[in-house]
Amino acid sequence: MGFSRELHLAVHIQERMTTPSGQLGFFMVHLPEGTGAKCPCLAFALRLIERGQLEIATGGWVMTDEASAHYFGMIDQLLEGHQWLEKNLGVKPVTGWAVDPFGHSSTMAYILKRSGFSNMLIQRVHYSVKKHFSIHKTLEFFWRQNWDEGSSTDILCHMMPFYSYDVPHTCGPDPKICCQFDFKRLPGGRISCPWRVPPEAIHDGNVQHRAAEIIYSFALASVKKFSKMEVFPSSENYKMLTEARRNLGLFQHHDAITGTGKDWVVVDYGTRSLVVYNPTEQERTAVVTVYVDSPKVKVATLLGQPVMGQISAVWEETATISAEAYQVSFVTQLPALGLKVYQLAQGTDVNVLLADYNLYKMGEAIPVNSNSAFKVNVMQSNPMNYIIENSHLKIWCSGSSGLMEKIRLKETGKELNVKVEFVWYGTTSNRDKSGAYLFLPDGEAKPYSSSGSPIITVTTGAVFSEVTSTYHHFTHTVRVYNIQGVEGQSVEMCNTVDIRGEFNREIAMRITSDVNSNDRFFTDLNGFQIQPRRTLGTLPLQANFYPLTTMAYIQDEQVRLTLHSAQSLGVASLRSGQLEVIMDRRLMQDDNRGLGQGVQDNKVTANLFRLLLEERVRLDKTENSKPTSFPSLLSHMSSLYLNHPVIPMAVSHDFSTSHLLPAFSPLTSSMPCDVHVVNLRTIQSNIAIERLFNELKVQRFVPASLSLMYTASEGMNSSSIQLEPMEISTFRIQLT
Fold this sequence. Notes:
By secondary structure, the protein is α+β, with helices and mostly antiparallel strands. It is 15% helix and 32% strand. The chain has ten helices and 40 strands. Residues 1-6 and 241-265 have low confidence and may be disordered.
């Protein structure tokens, strides 16, 4: 509910009435620019809060999504809201309020608990789950994290029992009765009750009949449950209640629910400096790619040391190489959370090599508009397989489709058939069809087919090698990096999808392997924890899809196959050994869930993944019975690097390089790989904090709640911290 409407409503309601609120981002929209603590709006809001007429619930900047959001964003928006409340109103919310997110995550329960909340409320849960909780009288429960063997993460949670949080679905089990207390639906208004029983006004003196009406509706529901209707005088009582309704006083109800590619820039130069930032807290070997305007490029550190690099073509179309833009990729070694400066200059260098290209199209000649800088071989017959490899991996791709078929781990010789394919989903022919909120397919997916064979481009280079398959609706690239370290041990996959011309279709990428996973697979929750899943054949196909924020994996006794994702998507494992992710959706109709339109604003969409194959060396026989699972350290780092790529920044022409340091290392050493700095904001195992900073000294170091609402006493000041597994901790640090 928007703040401006709430404050307006609060002027007219009796002092004993309260309205909840929680999205500060909407509140700020209605405040004058540059609003300070003396703003009349804030003073009025504070009076309402002090009188108990306005309650701030959750207090985040928004009511965050809980399915596809990453925990970084979930925490950040909560911290932003709580900091604003502390500064402007001095309010500390104690109750979580989530009525709009489509589904709820235990990650949010954890975040609220660690932020100092004592209870929370949730609404959008499947009706069958609500029914189960209601039957067992567990609509109020303590929500505990799966890994918590004690009760430190417990938070009291109330699940709203009915379909919605609007008036017809909140006062009792019968919405047609509850609707009669939604006075905005009185005759003469624009909104009516859809159950053909219109609300009628009642005099102020008979307000007590409201309680009788509510009790009656619960009693009637109970009688129906136990099949005792013949002994319950429902008709006679209902007539009396109808008469009482005509005497109910009028209150005006206000409802204000707020509704529900990457451009590249060519680096032009004589000589340009490039600052590269490592956003992770470990020293890191990575590949940096920027666009330049010449194929003749030298790359060096600021001190003049040459750097190995690769010049690649920029393909404007499938067989057209740009004459104006080129990619230069080079390997960098970056300090933890640090910066390093490189120089790009025109000229040739034996350390920077041009990539080679082979183009294939079954039985057809390809007219290539080739740039003379590159060697491009056009082949009219396809081999059995295309092979790309580095020191860690060997990848086989199909000679006819260009899509991956097999992976080998060179260190152990382990091979696994891993077949990538694409499939289409349609939508059901029933009245209810797929839309922005609903996925209602017309059965199992159908294999993708194209009228012609794809154009397959094989790139071989010093820094990376790749196979790109271009189809009518998508371009799929499989790449391996020729570097040591984390990013050389997984396969990068990129899909560029364009289904703007389709009608009620959804395209998915399916990975089929030899992994004997049966009906079990694993997905992350908000990038924070892993949740074991089971595919249930008794449920509709769509019920077996789950949110994928950062990773999903399948495993058997020998191997684990993990799909890391740089974006949130839907994932399923509909067969043993399979993982399937929805790439894009184009749907022509509204699904009657509030958006009011279909999904027709499609753009060309890029999705980036890493596929990691690992052998399992220590098998836990009891794992299948546990409610928890965890990624390996390599998998954790692969996800971290994928979602926190290095950031190149071109230095302005008019900035003198004499003002630049060759490198900057804020930490004296890398942090352990199982520790992650979620954020370091300027605001307001044991780690020796003082040793992390070269020239800064820690003057004050105080533990705080997750969103900084509560801070430990001054006596808690410490120079070292103890981090427990799976815990996120917040500290106020003062540096001098």
